[in-house]
Write a sequence for this structure.
């Protein structure tokens, strides 16, 4: 694909290297982790990233990329333009976020037409583009938080807005701690589509006798031991409800609880 076509597809502005618009690239690599760019990026590519620093430009150069497209209208600082000029890299900036940019570029690559109200596009956007599963063990306070940390890391790699990632991470952490404290075992399922992020936390345990009561701030069934470790303030489910765009709770006493959380992207 010509870099000029990438620019036009993303309505991007040229920050430096306009003379390179006629160059052709074989790949477009989207990432905010420069170690991944260096490990997996292929020469003759363009980097799509939200990391607006000189390190992103240097990493692209080291990986033998042709240029960098900064998402969400970001503009690089700290000598990035000068480095790009000296090393023959093109720098672009687009207002689109990572997903929007990837969808538009893929549509152009595959020859599909994008229309905002198209049913086929709607179906395409609801397709699962990433899924993962994690396990949580009862009273495993030593590893508590590793699941939510893993989810946060995945979403950062994809390039979601940091405010959205924060809401997802907080909600996942609260749900993870509830499983550690009150259940025997649990699974966390992460599903990402271009329209939403879904987290399902399904546990086997004692269940919630009164969901409405459990959603009230300050209500808790935590033991003194849990409180001594800083947990069980009664803000778990209320925090999840506050941060998630959609929350569904299914619980049966003596069997367990299933939380389904959705976050619009």
């Amino acid at each position: 694909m010509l870099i000029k076509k990438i620019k036009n597809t993303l309505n991007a502005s040229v920050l430096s290297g306009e003379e390179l618009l006629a160059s052709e690239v074989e790949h477009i690599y989207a990432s905010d982790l420069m170690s991944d760019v260096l490990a997996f990026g292929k020469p003759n590519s363009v980097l799509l990233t939200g990391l607006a620093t000189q390190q992103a430009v240097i990493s692209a150069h080291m990986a033998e990329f042709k240029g960098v497209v900064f998402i969400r209208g970001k503009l690089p600082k700290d000598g990035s333009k000068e480095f790009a000029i000296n090393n023959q890299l093109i720098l672009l900036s687009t207002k689109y976020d990572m997903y929007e940019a990837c969808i538009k570029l893929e549509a152009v690559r595959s020859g599909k037409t994008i229309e905002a109200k198209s049913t086929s596009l709607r179906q395409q956007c609801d397709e699962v583009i990433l899924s993962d599963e994690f396990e949580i063990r009862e009273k495993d306070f030593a590893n508590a938080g590793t699941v939510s940390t893993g989810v946060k890391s995945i979403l950062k790699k994809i390039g979601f807005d940091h405010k959205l990632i924060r809401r997802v991470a907080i909600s996942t952490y609260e749900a993870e701690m509830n499983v550690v404290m009150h259940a025997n075992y649990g699974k966390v399922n992460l599903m990402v589509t271009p329209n939403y992020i879904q987290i399902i936390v399904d546990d086997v345990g004692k269940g919630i006798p009164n969901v409405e009561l459990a959603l009230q701030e300050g209500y808790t069934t935590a033991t003194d031991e849990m409180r001594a470790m800083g947990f069980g303030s009664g803000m778990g489910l209320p925090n999840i409800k506050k941060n998630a765009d959609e929350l569904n709770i299914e619980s049966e006493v003596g069997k367990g609880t299933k939380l389904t959380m959705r976050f619009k992207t």
About this structure: Residues 115-125 have pLDDT under 50 and may be disordered.
